[in-house]
């Protein structure tokens, strides 16, 4: 296992680094707020240290304002709550009803969802009208996401990507949060002839098909079936609902592993395991016609498959990251052979001349590893529980220090060495460099903050951070 896990590292030991990070984070958020013009679109990634837009789909604006909300959560600085609240109201409504994307869990749970969570926690003064506003947005968002549905030959289905009805993206497993939250709020998708469609059912079906078609288990599926690797896109024949082939949009090939997609799988399956095992997810839901016993049976049968996928992808990540826990952008990138033969046994080198690393994948995966470890510790005895938790903490320590933490006040990014779309050549390559490095992304910055907040809350004995309510009765 290339990653060198520090088994003595604790959340408490990371608090000074986390507090320093949030001090830098405040500067970054304020800088973007002062200079960004909404008419220019959504900030996506930095070029020469300044956030720029890149049209593909509008999937990062929730991370922009969600970052301000997380900043308030961590520090109590109400300036950032004001930014998160006001900009969510002003600019996020179109994302709630956006029928053309698979990213509702990214945009809307990061904004409306975080605000509702803070309201329930008493961090925001109780206001029923504000609560109703956030809840309505999340209900609509979950239903709109669930309506983006492709039916398969076996009668199940999946939420298709912006590429079209044939396309299942591994990323979407984490965006399923929107369905989970809406279901927990008692909502359903209404279909033809007033059919009540269970959001929980669609969440589970999508996740199960992601586990089936996007994750490999070393069971001979094809010549490149290595346990734990993922494919970015699974392609289906929409005429009969039959699986056709793996594909990749942002990775190097269908038969290698794009590591951010791998990270989405680790984090998404771990979070959905937490949701399935929560009190709230097992309650009956009158709005979609579900009974308590039906829900319990559904969730129990799904949990084993989610755990299988989470364990496989987590193992693959740990084996294929560098010693400090940061991976290359793709496990089969074409110039990896030019790196030293033992490069995985050394700390990552974002300034190498051959292939970029992806720090955003590390930030996403670290949170997933911690959550998976916590799940295993809570629900069954497993030596892997400590291994995954400690790996997540070890990766966090790497990202909270240079060369990954951005300490330059003139750089608007927080987490350096993030990669967006290597095949399309969208990432900035600085003069004198041969591969992208030194830049940041909205998702990378947001997930570093979210990872740090998860650890900080544990270190301070505060409520465990989840996207859903563990006890929605209150």
Percentage beta strand:
5-15%
**Roughly how many Å is the radius of gyration?**
21 Å
Helix residue percentage:
40-55%
For the sheet with most strands, the description reads: 3 strands, antiparallel
User: Kindly state the mean pLDDT as a whole number?
Assistant: 94
| Helix count from the secondary structure assignment | 15
| Alpha-beta content class | mainly alpha
CATH architecture: Alpha/alpha barrel
CATH fold label = Glycosyltransferase
Q: Kindly, what is the distance between the CA atoms of the first and last residues, rounded to a whole number of angstroms?
A: 44 Å
Summary keywords:
474 residues; mainly alpha; Glycosyltransferase; two-stranded antiparallel sheet; 9 strands
General description of the model:
Helix 10 runs parallel beside helix 12 (292-320), helix 11 (259-276) packs parallel to helix 13 and helix 13 (359-379) runs parallel beside helix 15. By secondary structure, the protein is mainly alpha-helical. The protein has a single domain, classed as Glycosyltransferase. The model has no long low-confidence stretch (mean pLDDT 94). The radius of gyration is 21 Å and the shape is globular. The chain has helices at residues 11-35, 61-75, 78-91, 93-96, 104-107, 109-120, 128-146, 172-175, 177-184, 199-213, 259-276, 292-320, 359-379, 383-399, 442-459; strands at 43-47, 50-53, 149-151, 157-159, 167-169, 189-190, 196-197, 233-237, 242-247.
